[in-house]
Specification:
This protein is an alpha/beta fold. Helices cover 29% and strands 14% of the residues. An 8-stranded mixed beta sheet has the order 6-5-14-15-16-13-17-12, with helices on both faces. The longest helix is centred in the C-terminal third of the chain and has 20 residues, at 644-663. InterPro entries: FAD/NAD-bd_sf (IPR036188), Oleate_hydratase (IPR010354). This is 67 kDa myosin-cross-reactive antigen family protein. GO terms for molecular function: FAD binding; oleate hydratase activity.
Length: 665
């Protein structure tokens, strides 16, 4: 069949009504049938990367993207790749003077570098890698992608940590000892078994026991993902499912992969360079405050964009007309909105109220949308209590000093070699701020001098006085933050020398974990809210089927869903990777939760399976061969809680079954 014949197909009828662009793998049982041509909802493979035909009439349509973070950039990418929209028809409106949103990275060695936050990634961020395998690499020759670059770095330089938890002014703790008793392990298992619908507006501290919240496991989990005890239990559940395959890597962070440079130079710059080369148009210093909408009983159509354009420190109103066939993609809320900055001798000064971001905030667009219809959610659930959504980070630019020498001692490789350093954050479990520090691969910036290290520090608890500095972290200058860090590293006596060799830039972010605030069904809007014909919503405050938030993956997923749904592209955004259903991950996760000791019933599984094809699904038993039988009998006794005769009879039956497996040809 010739291509010109294929191109005459009526694509909207191919993507017929009822086609699920955002499938839910937890919703029902997938099976083969005569009329089911689609793979399983969470199926990830090259088959899911098929090229679609151009959407009819796409050449005459425009797209207005509000927000130049990774979600907005992703919307532009998918409009070009999968909708075949001419790039010159795509306009990105950004409040700041540079694209990237929360994924920033800037500075110089003289004034100091700054990164407000970092991104922890793993190999099954499928929408992230779907996009970046098509974006040209930053440093490799033509023909290589960002994904190729990322894989080459991580495949040849494994990430892990040897000092994930510390306490008592520099002591390294055994992070593999999760410290969960059987009852506390069951708290996690019961949470995973609960329906999502049963967890509306429940806080973490309302569910877990006090002992659980003091365990090493919770220190690992909450510091890795930035959860406070007052945050959403539902989000905790979603994280457990998303990272079930990674639990045995929490203690040494071997579950993670990191880039060569900071997130801006690694991801944002190559992606935005690609979009500019294609013809996408960027307009900066433009804050969108509202959308004009034509609303009927069953439709919501954007007809205009109301914005404020900043020039010479003055804002002027701008109205952009939007045709019915044009598209609008809007960011709802920002994690890093109204960041307050400070340096060595200054303290950050917030400009927002505790319960309201104010009229000059980027949150105004979502606030105004929510007034138009309940389908746009409840932004006040997320911005309404900055004491619970706020934390602070600091970026240290360090010349050689006792501080950099201490980092070398704690790193798996000398940071000056460019290889994996601390492998992720080091968390001080006795820190009243719950302070963490990390040294990623160096140089962290392309222009960074060879003798300079860039460290990143963050504190999660903002209402407690420090251990050494008797102030809350937001009350401290940069100098006092360095003082507190050096106390936890056991470097108090060398503070003067360290301060003379270190620059610091501080970022206090009132909404950095606003997306974790307790919420209920309907509080977050969907990527394409009900009735919207030309509006898609993107970012961390948008509801997806099963994915987590506070990740690049989440922002990209919302953009991709919006593009596919609004243009009815016959292509699915796969549900999250199905590793949560893999019996291998369930078993090794159970072992990890039990501090790498066999969980109840695991030895029985070994007796059943270790002579079979499926023996490989079980972690090796951590004991000599000669004691396995006695340990097995002890476990049987605990399981059966019966007399020794029954125990021996059952044990003999298992032994006979094993021998039967091993003796068959």
């Amino acid at each position: 069949m010739r291509y010109d014949k294929i191109a005459t197909f009526d694509i909207p009828t191919i993507a017929a009504e009822g086609f699920e662009h955002e499938p839910d793998a937890t919703r029902d049982y997938w099976q083969h049938s005569a009329k089911n041509t689609l793979p399983p909802y969470d199926f990830i493979s090259p088959y899911a990367r098929h090229k679609t035909l151009p959407t009819p009439g796409i050449e005459q349509r425009k797209a207005w993207i509000i927000g130049g973070g990774v979600g907005g950039l992703a919307a532009a990418f998918y409009l070009i790749r999968d909708a075949h929209m001419p790039a010159e028809n795509i306009y990105i409106l950004e409040e700041m003077t540079l694209e990237g949103g929360s994924m920033d990275g800037s500075g110089n060695p003289e004034e100091g570098y700054i990164i407000r936050g970092g991104r922890e990634m793993n190999w099954n961020y499928d929408t992230l890698w779907d996009m970046f395998q098509d974006i040209p690499a930053a440093e490799l020759p033509e023909g290589y992608s960002v994904l190729d670059e990322y894989r080459l770095i991580n495949d040849n330089d494994a990430n892990y940590s040897k000092a994930r938890l510390m306490a008592k002014n520099g002591d390294i703790l055994d992070a593999k000892e999760f410290g969960l008793n059987k009852s506390q392990q069951w708290e996690l298992i019961r949470l995973m078994l609960k329906r999502k619908e049963a967890l509306d507006d429940i806080r973490i501290e309302d569910y877990f026991s006090k002992g659980f919240l003091k365990s090493n496991f919770w220190f690992l989990f909450r510091s890795m993902f930035a959860f406070k005890d007052s945050h959403s239990l539902l989000e905790t559940k979603l994280y457990l499912h998303r990272f079930l395959d990674s639990i045995d890597g929490f203690a040494d962070l071997s579950a993670l992969v990191f880039p060569k440079y900071n997130q801006y130079d690694t991801f944002i710059k190559p992606l935005s360079d690609y979009l500019r080369q294609q013809g996408v148009q960027f307009q900066f210093a433009t804050r969108v405050v509202d959308l004009d909408m034509q609303i009927t009983e069953d439709q919501k159509i954007v007809t205009g964009i109301q914005a404020m354009v900043r020039e010479n420190d003055q804002e002027q109103p701008l109205t952009i007309a939007v045709n019915h066939q044009d598209l609008v993609f809007a960011l709802t809320g920002s994690m890093t909105e109204q960041t307050a900055y400070a340096s060595m001798e200054t303290v950050p000064q917030l400009t927002c109220e505790q319960d309201d971001p104010g009229e000059q905030s980027g949150w105004m667009l979502w606030k105004n949308l929510a007034k138009k219809s309940p389908v746009f959610g409840k932004p006040e659930k997320f911005y309404g209590d900055t004491e619970q959504s706020m934390w602070e980070s600091a970026t240290l630019t360090c010349k050689p000093s006792p501080l950099t020498q201490k980092i070398i001692e704690l790193a798996v490789n000398d940071p000056y070699t460019g290889r994996t350093a601390t492998g992720g954050i080091i968390t001080f479990t006795d820190s009243k701020w719950l302070l963490s520090v990390t040294c990623n691969r160096q140089p962290h910036f392309p222009n960074q001098p060879n003798d300079t290290l860039v460290l990143w520090v963050y504190g999660l608890l903002m209402d407690q006085q420090g251990n050494a500095v008797k102030k809350t972290m937001p009350e401290c200058t940069g100098k006092e933050i360095i003082t507190e860090l050096c106390y936890h590293l056991g470097l108090q006596d060398q503070l003067k020398d360290i301060l003379s060799k270190t620059k610091i830039r501080v970022a206090l972010m009132p909404y950095i974990t606003a997306q974790f605030m307790p919420r209920a069904t309907g509080d977050r809007p969907h990527p394409v809210p009900e009735g919207c014909t030309n509006l898609g919503l993107i970012g961390q405050f948008v509801e997806t089927r099963n994915d987590i938030i506070f990740t690049m993956e989440a922002s990209i997923r919302t953009a991709r869903i919006g593009v596919y749904k609004l243009l009815n592209i016959p292509k699915q955004v796969p549900d999250i990777s199905p590793t949560q259903y893999d019996i291998r991950n369930l078993i090794k996760g159970a072992r990890a939760l039990n501090s790498n000791k066999p969980f109840l019933g695991e030895r029985l599984l070994h007796r059943l399976l270790d002579k079979t094809y499926y023996a490989h699904i079980l972690p090796p038993l951590p004991e000599p061969e000669q004691v396995k039988q006695s340990k097995f009998e002890e476990e049987l006794h605990e399981i059966l809680d019966k007399g020794s005769t029954l125990m021996h009879q059952f044990g003999n039956w298992i032994q006979a079954l094993r021998e039967n497996f091993s003796n068959r040809e």
